[in-house]
Structure formats: C-alpha cells, structure tokens
Specification:
heterodimer, A: mainly beta, Immunoglobulin-like, Ferric Hydroxamate Uptake Protein, Chain A, domain 1, Maltoporin, Chain A, B: outer membrane lipoprotein receptor (LolB), chain A, eleven-stranded antiparallel sheet, five-stranded mixed sheet, 16 strands, about 45% strand, globular
C-alpha cells in the first residue's frame, strides 16, 4: 500500500518536474474500413484519457481511410474514440505505445437532435414579396388556390379574382409566363399546392418592361414559382365520380406541363352536381381592348340569384374543356394559344313576389312562379404574340368568342306564360400595342384596337299578351321580338414621351370610332299568320360616334413622391340615323385625371386620385320604338343619347410588414354621377313601360372600406378582418313624379384559418351586412343578412374528414329567417389514388327564401335548391 | 450569343455606404451576367443542412454598424457547399424571364461567395462576385488552421461544444465544435476539427457565425452549382484578391476597366456626365452596362473588410 502511494507521489512529481518532452512520443495509426472492406474517409479519431471525455489528440481519416494520432504523456493506457456520421461511435482502451491499429466499422446512422430554423414565411426583396408555400399549406389543401387565401395580404374573392392589399392584381404568371391571359382560375384551381415552391407578389408591377420607368403602376402581379420537381414533366390527374339523387356524375381530367420553353394546362370538367366549371374561364384582366356587349338584351324572366353558395341552387349539366398553351420562341417572343369551351344545361325553379313602391303610397305587387331551362354553349379563343424587352414591346392579341343560348321558361301568374329566347352573340377583336425606346431614351407607343360584335337574339312569348295594345283587344297565339345589334369599334392612338430631370412628359393623339346598329321588330303571330309589325314596334337605328383627342400627360417624380396628371382634350361627334330622323351632336370637352402616390416609408403608402369622365350612353337606351326585353318589360326611349358625367375621387392608404406578416389597407371614395336624362317607369296592369325623360339626374355615392390581415405563428392562423360602408343618393321618376331615394349599406367580415398541427384544421368566416333605405318619405325596413361559414377537418393517417357548415340569416323574412346547410366529406388517400365520399346538404333543405331591395322595389324570392346528395369520387394521379 | 442575351438580368443594386444616415454611395443599374443559373450541375447530395447567422462589420471605421447574413452549409457524402441564403433566394426570385429592378434598399446584406469543400477531391473551389458582372472562381488547397483545443465547454443549440483557437486568413479565430456531430466542417473555410463547428468568430468580432439550425435531410437535397460557373476555368486566388482590393480602393476605375460605363448623377438623380468604358467587350455584343454613381462619391472608396484578409 505504501509502495503504491510512493509510486503515485513519484509519478506526480515526475509529471511536475520533468518537461513532457522527456516522455516518448507515441503514434497510433491505421486504416479505417467498413464491413465490405472499403476505406472510410472523414472518420474522427479522438485520443483521450480512459473514462474521460477529454481530447488529447485527434485525427480525421483521409481519403484512403488513414488516420494518425500522437500522444506525449505519462498515461499507460488511453482511450481511442472513433465517430463517423454514418458509423456511430466506437470506443476502445489501448496501451499507450506506438502501434498500428486498424478498425472495421459497422454502418450505424446517427439520429441528430434537430433544430429547424423557423422558415421565413414571408420575405421581401426589393419589390418582390415571397410567400413560402410550405409554411402555409395544410394537410387538407389540394390546389394552390386553397393556400393563396391563407396568405395575409392576398385576398381571393368569391368570384376567384385575386387582390393584393386591397387592389386587384394586374397579371398572374406561372414561372413568369402569362399562360392564362387573365383566366387564372384555371391555374389556382388545378395546380397542385405541393408543386408550388413559393407565391411571389411583384409590387407596383408595370408589365411592359419598356414602360417600367415611364408608367408606374400601383397594382401588383402574382407569380407562381414551381418546385423543380414540377418543372419539365407532364402531370395528369383524372377524377371519376357518381352519386344520387338524382343520378349524379362529376368527372375531371387535368394535364399540366411547365417547362422553360413551353407551358400547357389542359382540362376537362363535367358534372351535374352544381359545380359551375365555367367559372374558371372568367378573365380578371381589365384590358383596354374591350367593347360594349349586348348579349343579354332580351331575356326570359328569371329571378336574380340568391346570395348563397352557388352550388346549392345550381341544377346544371356541364361539360367544359380548356386548352392553354404558351411557347417561348426565338428572340424572347411568346406565343399564346388558349381555347375554352363549355356546354351547360341549367334548370331554375323559383317563386317570387315583387313590390313596387309607387308615388302616392301605392304599392304594386307581382307574384310569379318561374320555371326556366337554359342551354348554353360558349367558346372563347385567344391567340397572342408578345415580346417584352426593356427597349421594345410588341403585342398582338386576337380574341374570338361565340355563344349559343337557348332559354325556355314557364311563368305561372294569373295565366301560364311560355317564354323562349335564343341568343347567339359573336365577338372578334384584335388588340395591338407597340412600344419602342429610341437610343436617346425617347419612347414611342402605338395602340390599336379593332373589334366587331354581332348580337342576334329573339324572344317568343306564348300566348300573345296585352291584346289591348297589339291586337285590337283580341286574343292571339304568340309574340316574337327580334333584335340584332352590331357594333364595330376602333380605337387608335400614338404617343411620344421623354424624360427630363423630375418630369416625364407624354404626348398622345388618338382617334376612336364606334359604329353601332340596332334593328328590331315585334311580331304578332296568330294562326301561323305573321302580322306585319307596325312602325311603332320596329327600330332601325344606326349610331356612329367619333372621338378625337389629344392628351398631355405629365408625371412628376421624386424618390418617395410621384404625381401623374392627364390632360386630355376630346372632340366628340355623333350621328344618329333612324328611319324617321337624323340627329347630330358635337362637343368639345376636357377629361382630366390626377393620381398621386407617396411612400412614407417601407411600410406605408398613400395614394389619391381624382378624375372627370364623360361618356355617351349605350345604344340600348336610344331606340325610339318599343322593344320587349322580358314579357313584362316593354321599353322605349324619347331622348337623345344618354350623357354621363362623373367626378370621382379617392384616397387609399396601405400598410405592409412582411416580417411581421401584417398587411392592411383603408380607402375612401366619392363619386358624383350626372346623367342628362332620367328613367320614367309607367305601369299598365302588369306591363311596365320604361321611358327616358329629358331631365337631369344626379347620383352621389361615397364609400369607406378597410381590411387587415395577419398570420400569427404561435397559433398557426391567418386572421383577417374587413369592413365597408356604402351610401348612395339619387332620384327617379315614378308614375311621372320625381322620387328621391337613399340607400345605405354596411358590413364587416372576419375570417380565420387555423392549422391544428398535423391532425386538423379549422376555418371560419362571417359576413355581416346591414342595408337601409328610403324612397321619398317611405322608410324601408332595414335588412340584416348574416352568413356563417365553418369548416373543420380532421386527419387520421390517410383518412381525412371534412365537415362544412353554412348558416344564413335574413331579418326581412317573416318565418324561417335562418337557413343552415351542412356537408360531410370523407377522403382516403391510397398511393396515387384518392377516394372521396361526399354527403352534400345533410339537412336535406329544399327551398331557400330571400328578401332584397333594389332601387324602388322590394322582392321576396323562393328558390328550389339541391336536395341531400351522396357522391362517390375517385381521383387518380395518372402521371 | 442569343443564349447569352436571354440570360441577362437587369438589376438595381444598392451598395450602401456604412456611414450612418449617409446617402447611397452607389446606385447601379446593370446587367447581371452572374445569374444565368438556370442550368445546373449536381455535384453531390446533401444529408445535413446547417444554418448559420452571420453578423459582420463591413467598415472597420464604423464598427457599430452590423450587417447581417444567413448562411447555409450543405454536407454531402463527398463534399460540402457553403452559401448565402439571401443571395440564393434572390437568385431564384429573379429568373431570366422576369428581370425586375429592386427599387427599395434591403437591410440584409448577403455576401456573394460560395465555397465547395473537397471539390475537386482534396481541394476547395470558391466562387465570388466582386461586382455582379464578373464571377470569380479559384481553387485552393484545404489548409486547416493549427487548432489548439482547450478544455472549455459551452452549449450551443443544445449541443456541448469544445472551444478551439486557430489562425487563418490573417485573423485569429475562436470556434466551438461539437463531437456529437462527427463531421469536420464549419462555416466559411473553417473546419478540420473532430466535430461540427457551431459557433465561430474572429477575436476582433468582425465576423460572428452562430448556428441557428440543424436538419438531417430525409429527402436528400442535391448540391448544385450553375453549369456555367462549373465549366469556367477560373483564375488564381491572387488575381481575385487583387481585383477585390482594386474595386474597394477605386471602384469607378475598376468598373470602367471591366466594361461598365458610369453615369455620374447629382443628388436628384440628374445625369451630369457619362464616363464611357474603354473596355468595349460588352458593347460589341450589343449590351450596354450602365451604373449610376452620385458625383460626390466619384473618388470615394468602398469600405474594405473582407473575411479573408490575405
């Protein structure tokens, strides 16, 4: 024992007194291999004292698996530790002598304690705001449209239109190509959320690169950035669905291809389950190349649509096909070819009661039971060639659209009336735009739009009505109204602009022609004889308008402030020719426009705008002889063209803080609208005659609205709140008397989308609306409507359960103010197949009743709605 | 040549001076040839992704102004890739078909370099852009510092780390590595220790790296390099270091020498003078590279404090 202590003491003294160099240096080296004999590089070899976690020496094996550790010291045994990322750790006690020591390691992956960086869900780089899709996507989200609505600052309206911080977007790109030309519902409803890496918002987006410094835009664009895995490969999805009652079907086929030089989306969707597949074909671009449409001049009487989810009351049978292509050609040219077609047969059943407030406190009440069938075929085709460079822009866009509408209906009032209409509007147009920047920085811009539309339509009513007016008070078989309206429009302008110091100057000259032609006759048919229409039931009208203008546009800009002033001077002349008279008008007028933007800082923007505009009324307010638009709507006009003048002003404030996921905006606007004539309504029994009387009418409206949205990371929720107030004051002639009316409308709608971890999600939306009105001295009872939408989803492994609940409240209904709908959906995912079982309208409600106001009337409607239905669907991923 | 033009990007870039409240030193609008990164080569696949935050001082005369970057270290079986998260993000944000100017200054400053360790085997390849016009590429031997391991231990992100000190690139470094993650990598060019470096800083604290994320990639992520960069022959490290110094000492002449024409502007962004580049390489291809500089900054230097001083 003593011997041992002395030994120890000596050893300690030895260590203290003698420099370490006196000890021999030992080297341990060797080769590290795995079980199959391959040498392993990158293995850490640590030399330490036995049972201590210290490091005396270390080595990292080289590409040949060789290591060498050295040690100088007194220990007689050491611990050698090997660690490797895929080989775990091996410990061995060795004698402290130089030696060769090879190792054979077994594969044993390490499981690290992970620290995941909270993803930057929203980030801003310059004018681009990136929303990381993976941060917002939930387990139940299928397409990118489901995710877009959870992104704060981005709002998807019910129509499918997308706005960013209160303003509608001006472009929608997929991988920076404008594949869909505004029909971006095709993208948001078909591109899988899992294929998208990020959604990018380009703020203040001027789509024409050559105008980027000349015309600043305050609208944003959205770009869908795909994951690499979704690029360059065809993906296709098919869905088959069937159910009852009645026999239901819901089938889809979607193929998507996105590559650098070519993109394609092809879809087929067909169903009779109330999904209006044609809504995907709505274009949301507000383009200069548009013209007056008169497709719905005549119509069979059908009630206005109720404010509930459309799929509840839509009895349809639709087939829709869409093919969208874009090619990137040589020299940055893009070529678009888009074709959309659908065929639908819709049924509507309703009962309505309308009350018209007439002067002298009298009220006219009309009761109708309506059954209508609509057969619609619609085709849209677009071909567009575009090149967009920083000094050169060329765009030529040919649009074609045709519609074939056949509607049939029965009205049961005191009599039974058969209605039948046929409408075949056709439209073709070409839009051309050229922007060229010269070497000295001047910009030349040429715009040209040429379009032609033809809208033939007829309305047949059986039996013949109003015999006291049309057939010497004798009953007759039928009345047939024919109308054709043709429109040729051409708008052309040239501009030249240059920049100096803080001012951009643009000078424009333009020339517009609009030539319209309206022909109509109302035929009285009896015993297969056609009575020649008297002159009072015929129109033959040609209206040609010319507008020549010069416009000076100045833009004054500082880094944070910008103001645009447009000063167009117009010379307008119009010729109206009809069989009986000729009218010429010419006018010189000035329509200024002013727009100012101030960037307070990175967060706040303020913009203000004022404009004065003047326009001349559509030809459908110009015909001098009677036209029957619906069976109880017989109109004629006694006036020169309707002249509109409008002063509008607005103020808009927007806030964004991407880092805090907080977006908000507030705006107010005022408009004073003046027309040179007023509508006069006269009633003879059920027949309404609307005349236009030459007496000015002023309509004043103002509105305030705002919204705020935020993503709260702690509760994985997107919360948004919006509110609005709208007030309109105007006047109208009723039975020869001027009646003032006032309408007030306000409401708010909060919305929350929450992800409850990986097992569930909840979304809830409320829409609260109040409307009050007064006509003359009569105060209309206020109407309050409330809609609640609740959706809860649970995910259990491969099974998803969705429960949807909708509740509608309308204060103006005497009994049954509340209406509820519920749906349940089960989804089971199995590899590339998704099976779904949907039970729609669990409560089996069959009727929906609403009450509403329009200007001088109050309406009650009862609609037939879709009963309880069970639908089985299978979705397959084909590629 | 057409292909070349198609890849051009128009960028508005801000190189801000570090003096507090100072005006932008340089506003440049130029074509970015660096970002033709649509075609990439895959070098390896990553099994680990490490995220670091970097706080650094760009101007030694103004050491209180701290710039921020976020770095990513991808660790594959064969090699590692170290890059700026923000720069990669903006690369993917601006693809060739929609070149859009950055109009607002950014408060994060990404460093442009990208380091591939053990590529080619046994060596290291570095890419960097001094201006966005020219991408520099050089290869060097991996020379790890002589690390001195002390017994100090600290926890970083829940991992016990051992302190080590060493000198490289004319700076003394303190690093903290964890043997629990047995890969001998770290931020920037630091490595060669028996464990991953989770924290590293030089003794002047001009460059401070701190690990903020550790992720074991279940789906292996490819380690990619733009094909155009990969096939470039590159130059020597000395050439790159020399150009970097030239740029910081005399930016205007440097930019002129590599093919930019300079627009001298007054504070209201009004053109005062255009200095034409004597190097017409790009003009011959029909491309004009223009950069705007405030006239008061005509002879001003760009602060010079790179992480690697020699």
């Amino acid at each position: 024992m003593i011997h041992y202590i002395i030994n120890k003491v000596l050893l300690i003294l030895f260590v203290i007194i003698f420099p370490i160099g006196l000890f021999g240096q030992i080297k341990v080296s060797g080769i590290i291999k795995n079980k199959s004999g391959e040498t392993l590089p990158g293995i850490n070899v640590l030399l330490g004292n036995v049972n201590k976690e210290n490091i005396l020496s270390y080595s990292i094996s080289d590409n040949n698996g060789y290591y060498q550790v050295e040690y100088k010291g007194a220990a007689d045994s050491l611990q050698i530790t090997l660690t490797g990322f895929d080989y775990g750790s091996v410990k061995k006690t060795i004698k402290a002598v130089s030696q060769k020591l090879d190792f054979e390691l077994t594969n044993q992956p390490i499981e690290l304690q992970e620290v995941i960086v909270k993803p930057e869900m929203i980030s801003q780089r310059g004018d681009t705001i990136n929303y990381l899709v993976s941060a917002f996507v939930g387990k139940g989200d299928r397409v990118i449209g489901d995710v877009l609505k959870k992104m704060p600052g981005i709002e998807v309206r019910e129509s499918g239109a997308i706005s960013y911080n209160g303003k509608e977007i001006n472009k929608f790109y997929v991988e920076n190509l404008d594949l869909l030309q505004g029909r971006y519902g095709i993208a948001t409803k078909n591109i899988s959320a899992n294929d998208v890496a990020s959604v990018q918002v380009y703020e203040n987006h001027q789509p024409v690169k050559a105008l980027q410094d000349v015309k600043l835009s305050d609208q944003a664009a959205i770009n869908i950035k795909l994951k690499d895995s979704a690029k360059g490969a065809l993906s296709a999805m098919a869905q088959l669905g069937t159910g009852f009652t009645p026999f239901l079907w819901n089938n889809e086929f979607v193929a998507l291809y996105f590559a650098k030089k070519y993109q394609n989306i092809t879809t087929y969707k067909g169903n009779n389950t109330g999904d209006d597949a044609s809504r995907e074909f709505t274009s949301f671009y507000s383009e200069a190349g548009s013209m007056q449409q008169y497709g719905n001049f005549l119509s069979i009487l059908a009630p206005s649509l109720p404010a509930i989810n459309r799929k509840r009351y839509l009895f349809n049978s639709i087939h829709s096909v869409s093919a969208n292509n874009i090619w990137v050609l040589k020299n940055d040219y893009n070529l678009n070819a888009n074709i959309n077609y659908f065929n639908d047969a819709q049924k509507q059943d309703s009962y309505s009661q309308s009350a018209y407030f007439l002067p002298g406190d009298s009220i006219l009440i009309i009761n109708e039971q309506l059954n209508a069938k609509k057969y619609i075929d619609k085709l849209n085709a677009d071909i567009k060639l575009n090149v967009n460079k920083s000094n050169f822009y060329l765009d030529n866009h040919i649009k074609l659209s045709g519609e074939w509408n056949r509607n049939r209906g029965i009205v049961l009032t005191s009599d039974s009336i058969n209605q039948q209409s046929e409408k075949n509007p056709f439209n073709i147009s070409n839009t051309f735009k050229l922007v060229k920047t010269t070497s000295s920085g001047k910009i030349v811009e040429v715009n040209s739009f040429n379009g032609f539309s033809k809208s033939p339509q007829k309305l047949i009513i059986e039996p013949g009505l109003y015999p006291f007016m049309f057939n010497d008070s004798k009953d007759y078989d039928k009345m047939k109204q024919n109308v054709t309206i043709n429109n040729f429009t051409s708008r052309n302008s040239v501009s030249y602009s240059f920049v100096s110091k803080h001012i951009r100057q643009v000078y424009w000259a333009g020339f517009d022609i609009e030539s319209q032609f309206l022909k109509s006759d109302l035929q009285i048919l009896n015993n297969n004889n056609i009575n020649a229409a008297p002159d009072s039931l015929m129109n033959d009208l040609r209206w040609t308008q010319y507008n020549m203008y010069v416009n000076a546009y100045y833009s004054y800009f500082l880094p944070k402030f910008k103001i645009d002033i447009y000063l167009p001077v117009n010379y307008y002349f119009s010729f109206i020719n009809n069989a009986w008279s000729k009218t010429n008008t010419n006018k010189l007028f000035f329509t200024p426009y002013l727009h100012a933007v101030y960037n307070l800082n990175n967060y706040w923007d303020i913009s203000a705008h004022y404009s004065f505009s003047k326009d001349y009324g559509p030809i459908d307010n110009l015909y001098p002889n009677y036209i029957m638009q619906t069976y109880r709507d017989l109109n004629r006009n006694e006036s020169k063209p309707l002249e509109y003048e409008s002063h509008a002003a607005s103020l808009f404030l927007s806030y964004k803080n991407p880092r805090k996921s907080l977006f908000g905006n507030m705006g107010g606007s005022y408009e004073r609208f003046r027309t040179n004539v007023m509508y006069a309504q006269e009633y003879t029994d059920i027949l309404q005659i609307r005349k236009i009387v030459e007496s000015p009418q002023i309509t004043e409206s103002y509105s305030v609205s705002g919204s705020i949205s935020k993503y709260i990371y702690a509760v994985r929720s997107t919360i948004s709140l919006s509110g609005r107030y709208y007030n309109v004051k105007s006047s109208q002639i009723n039975q020869g008397e001027v009646v003032k009316y006032n309408n007030e409308n306000y409401g708010f709608s909060p919305n929350i989308e929450t992800q409850l971890g990986s097992w569930g999600s909840i979304s809830y939306a409320l829409k609260w609306n109040e409307s009050n009105g007064a006509i003359g001295n009569i105060n209309l009872s206020g109407i309050r409507t409330i809609s609640n939408y609740l959706n809860i989803s649970f995910f259990i492994n491969k099974l998803a359960i969705n429960m949807g609940y909708e509740h509608y409240y309308n204060s103006n209904i005497l009994t049954g103010k509340n209406k509820s709908f519920a749906d349940i959906e089960l989804k089971y995912k199995f590899k590339d197949v998704e099976l779904m079982c949907t039970w729609v309208n669990v409560f089996n409600s069959k009727q929906y009743i609403i009450a509403s106001y329009s200007e001088t009337r109050e309406d009650y409607y009862a609609y037939g709605i879709r009963p309880a239905q069970l639908l089985l669907t299978a979705k397959f991923k084909l590629w | 040549m057409k292909r070349f033009k198609a890849g051009i990007i128009f960028l508005f870039f801000c190189i801000t001076c570090n003096n507090a409240n100072s005006q932008s030193f340089m506003r440049s609008q130029y074509f970015d040839l660096r970002r033709d990164i649509e075609k990439t080569d895959t070098l390896d696949s990553a099994k680990l992704r490490i995220d670091y935050s970097l706080l650094y001082v760009r101007d030694t005369l103004n050491p209180d102004k701290i710039s921020k970057d976020r770095k990513v270290l991808l660790i594959g079986d064969k090699l590692t890739d170290f890059y700026s998260y923000y720069i990669r993000q903006s690369d993917s944000a601006y693809t060739a078909s929609d070149p859009r100017p950055l109009k607002r200054p950014v408060d994060v400053q990404g460093e442009g370099y990208e380091i591939f360790n053990n590529y080619p085997e046994g060596k290291r390849t570095v890419f960097d852009a001094i201006t966005d016009l020219k991408i520099y590429k050089y290869k060097e031997d991996i020379k790890n510092p002589q690390w001195t391991i002390s017994g100090e231990i600290a926890m970083v992100l829940g991992y016990p780390c051992i302190k080590a000190t060493g000198r490289t690139g004319d700076r003394d470094y303190v690093v903290w590595f964890t043997p629990s993650i047995p890969v001998s990598s770290g931020p920037w060019k630091l490595g060669g220790l028996p464990g991953l470096i989770l924290r590293a800083y030089d003794t002047k604290r001009h460059y401070v790296f701190e690990c903020i994320g550790i992720e074991q990639l279940k789906q292996k992520q490819p380690i990619i390099v733009p094909a155009m960069w990969n096939k470039a022959t590159g130059a020597s490290k000395e050439f790159y270091m020399k150009d970097q110094k030239r740029y910081h000492n005399d930016p205007v002449n440097f930019l002129l020498s590599i093919g930019y024409s300079i627009v001298l502007e007054d504070e209201n962004q009004k053109r005062v003078e255009i200095v034409e580049t004597p190097n017409k390489t790009y003009a011959n291809r029909g491309i004009t590279l223009l950069t705007g500089i405030y006239i008061k900054d005509r002879y001003k230097k760009v602060p010079y404090n790179p992480i690697e001083l020699e």
